[in-house]
Amino acid sequence: MIKKCLFPAAGYGTRFLPATKAVPKEMLPILTKPLLQYGVEEALSANINNMAIVTGRGKRSIEDHFDNSLELESQLSGTSKEYYLDEIKEVIERATFTYVRQHKMLGLGHAILTGEPLIGNEPFAVILADDFFDCSGDGVISQLVKIYEKYQCSVIAIEEIDSTQVERYGIVTGDLIDGSDDTYSVTSMLEKPKLHDLIKPEEYELSSDDMPRFMAIAGRYILTPDIFSILKKINPGKHGEIQITDALKIQARAGKVIAFKYKGNRFDCGSIEGYVKATISLAKKRNII
Ligand code: G1P
Predict the structure, then answer these.
(1) Which of 5, 102, 203, 263 would bridge with 199, disulfide CB 3.0–4.6 Å?
(2) Is 112 a residue whose pLDDT tops 80?
(3) What pLDDT digit, counting tens, does each position of 260-285 carry?
(4) How much is the mean pLDDT over the chain?
(5) pTM higher than the cut 0.85
(6) Which atom of ligand 1 is nearest to the CA of 217?
(7) What are phi and psi of 166, to 5 degrees?
(8) Residue 219's CB: how many other CB atoms inside 10 A?
(9) Are 76 and 82 in contact (CB under 8 A)?
(10) How is 47-97 classified by DSSP, letter by letter?
């Protein structure tokens, strides 16, 4: 049973300045709801009720968002606008929230390690809220939980990308599990590699149509708790940061990582382009535009 979900939410959101000067990037809305709330709702829909949020300086509004606002409630109570608070009130009722602060920005792996006191010795989900998913069926975390229940090891969500994008993601190599077309046993991983780390020199000459495609990590994980002791031991990797991809690579060597091609559409809301596209897509779906 996965009962807890970790949300690394300590980053600066530099690409969205000045909007993120005083507002955490996780609180930027798609339509009327902050990115982080979509993530929390995704965890809830996978029957995960315990939200462990790794925050940092200037992120206090996250705690306020997931708390009752007595003033607002009494203002709206009995008026026609009361229902505006329904969605967030339901989230607050169903979930519990714990917080820890990351004092130094030493990478995603370090952020996850900072969450250890909130997680303890049990498997847990990780949601990177700036990867926003639109799924017609189960949410991505529910999809991963099903795979976890079968294999009882770490599980990562992946998608296929082309060679021009490899430097933006953790890249996975693996073998399809017998009888499956979407589930891989991971053999190796590299965080944001250069293309020449992945292909042979002669392949450089290939046209873009003939280039191999690659499997990129999307921002959803199920991790087994031994990941914490690995994170404590590994050296800084890409960009001099402690990378979760490097820790997973060690689990993968022992055959303990499964990659699953999730079903759904991802929007990279860490980029302005992805954020705008997510907003337009949802607005169209809801007949707002
Ligand atoms: C992180 C991970 C990377 C993963 C990506 C998915 O990178 O380090 O492996 O592919 O999330 O969004 P970031 O986007 O935080 O730089």
Answers:
(1) 203
(2) yes
(3) 999 999 999 999 999 999 999 999 99
(4) 94
(5) yes
(6) 10
(7) -60, -30
(8) 24
(9) yes
(10) T--EEEEEE-TT-HHHHHHTS--HHHHHHHTTSTTGGGGHHHHHHHHH-EE
Residue 171 contacts residue 259 (beta carbons within 8 Å): no
Residue 124 backbone dihedrals phi, psi, to 5 degrees: -150, 160
**pLDDT for residue 202 is more than 80:** no
Q: Which residue has the tokens 């315990």?
A: 50
What's the mean pLDDT in 219-234? 98
* 180 contacts: CB under 8 Å, gap ≥ 6: none
Residue 205's pLDDT band, with cuts at 50, 70 and 90, is confident
Question: Of all residues in the chain, what percent carry a pLDDT higher than 90?
Answer: 82
| pLDDT over threshold 80, residue 208 | no
| DSSP characters over 154-169 | EEEEEEEE-GGGGGGS
Helix (H, G, I), strand (E, B) or coil at 217: strand
Q: Nearest-CA neighbor of 8 among 77, 110, 88? A: 110
Query: Which amino acid is located at 178 in the chain?
Result: D
CA atoms within 13 Å, Cβ hemisphere of 81 = 5
- The residue to mutate among 168, 238, 246, 269, having the most atoms of ligand 1 within 8 angstroms of its beta carbon, is 168
Neighbours of 225 (CB within 10 A): 13
Q: What's the 86 CA to ligand 1 centre distance in angstroms?
A: 32
Buried b (16+ CB within 10 A) or exposed e, 178-192: eeeeebbbbeebbbb
**Residue 23 CB burial class (10 angstroms; 0-12, 13-18, ≥19):** middle
Q: Residues enclosing ligand 1, CB less than 6 A?
A: 108, 128, 131, 169-170, 191, 216-219, 245, 270
Q: At what angle do helices 35-45 and 140-151 cross, to 10 degrees?
A: 40
